[in-house]
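Researcher: I need the complex structure. Ligand is GCB. Inputs:
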Amino acid sequence: MMLRPQDTSTRERKNLNGLWQFVLDPDRRGRAAGWQSAALVAARGMPVPASYNDVAADAAVRDHVGPVWYQRTVWVPAGWAGRRIVLHLESATHRATVWVNDAEVVSHEGGYTPFEVDVTDHVTPGRQSRITVEVDNTLTFQTIPPGLVEETDHGKRQRYWHDFFNYAGLHRSVWLYSTDPAHLSDVTVVTDLDGTDGVIHYDVTAEAGPDTRVTVVLHDAEGNQVATGEGADGTLTVPQVHRWAPGDGYLYDLELLLWRGEDLLDSYHQSVGVRTVRVDGIRFLINDEPFYFTGFGKHEDVPVIGKGHNDAYLVHDFELLDWIGANSFRTSHYPYSEDVIDYADRHGIVLIDETAAVGLNMGLGGGIFGAQGYTTFSPETANEVTQQVHAQAIRELIARDKNHPSVVLWSIANEPESETEAAEHYFRPLFDVAREADPTRPVGFVNVMLAPYGTCRVSQFADVLMLNRYYGWYVQTGDLDAAEAAWEAELRGWAGENKPIIITEYGADTYPGLHSVVANSPWTEEYQVEYLDMNHRVFDRIDAVVGEQVWNFADFTTSSGIMRVGGNRKGVFTRDRQPKAAAHALRRRWRGGR
Ligand code: GCB
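Model: Output:
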């Protein structure tokens, strides 16, 4: 239960972004030595938000395995005397422990969801406080995503089964904020349509005494009051509602007010997009209209900053989505910054929202990744503890993003092992976890080519089939005729399941500037276009296909290996967002004459 920090008439935030002091702790000495209790020794400046890996020009930083320490001081505003003061971190990848002055205040597991702690008793308004965060990037069989640290003669080496670089650090904003001791603590909104009326169910929680009460006020985007409500939960009706719809990110503002008598104790603004999502046979319905996803799997990945959130890239990427005619993307392969989700709400971009459960598949070796020879699900590898951590990751994702109209589908994992009995046992309860946390949205997971039609034992639990396929790239390489036949044959199998199918990945590595006049020449810009055309011919022949998301929006950084040339090159844009030929081809398909 958490509300994202916000400035309102009763709330005040202080942003703690900027340069922090930073040291590596490869030998895990910091805790025993009490590094939180003094200024970090021999520290360098490190920007927040950013991954630390590429900021220093130093392999020891880039390839570091284990804890790092961030530290800064903050003046706690004098005006916050008597208020409740909270420290909020939007993410710390992959786990963190936080101290305020000498006191340990909170720890959090999972690199892509927020956490916060009441620090009122540990700070003094009008004085400075020291904030220290130990951030650990280690991945094990009991983390999401999983990994493995190998002790080699040359030091520790982090191995993992996912195809993107293990960037780490404080990737998103850090806040200190204040509220009244009696405060709002959460809100859930669920919307519906009744003819031309919009229906908004709301449920507010507060940490406040029995002598308090909640009211709500709904404004439209022009600021007109359209409905009010009394009590912590209820239903509002909006006549002639302006729906949230793909391409039309219309948002109402639901103001939550917490009162004691006539005194306003707390207020919070929750934006609300009124829309419905439903699966009906092979159709994916938004506002009861069939929706066809166009777009990409993306990454949070940019030069220097790594996985740090950056507003310039946020806006630019959405401009490029608009330019190319994409109406959606998947937050592959982890929950993205809340700034991204908010922006999608406002711009009518549809999201498939994914947990960080990527690489739960030790069969995915093939020379791409550096750790072969393990069994995915076993007492020693991904086990019941992993499953619990995974369940928690699902809960935290849904708790964070439940109120976003842009999010229409939960993806609880990317390309896990799914063809075994062990996988079936592992995943069955996780679908229940997702449905319990959110009964309103469809739930799925992303199926891998290693579990083709007829072999997958997990897709039976999914409302929507999400498939990643690389016919013409990893198989039938450079033979698009053979690829087309094989792909269509498999897809026709899935189409018999009577569920909507979204192709969540299809793509070909493409080295920008490499060309050929001869067809079927992998790595060239021409081949990427031919490859996409082939896929589109197949999709257009199969009614159950309700979406196409190309892998990937842009080139991105991976661990090193002989299958990757300066990272994964399946971007339709380069890492610095220049279009490859395929960008223009996709634009013609997705925008048509527009
Ligand atoms: C996949 C993965 C994605 C990889 C991609 C590739 O199936 O989901 O993370 O980057 O293939 O390019 O191999």
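Model: Summary of the prediction. The first strand starts at residue 12 and ends at 15.
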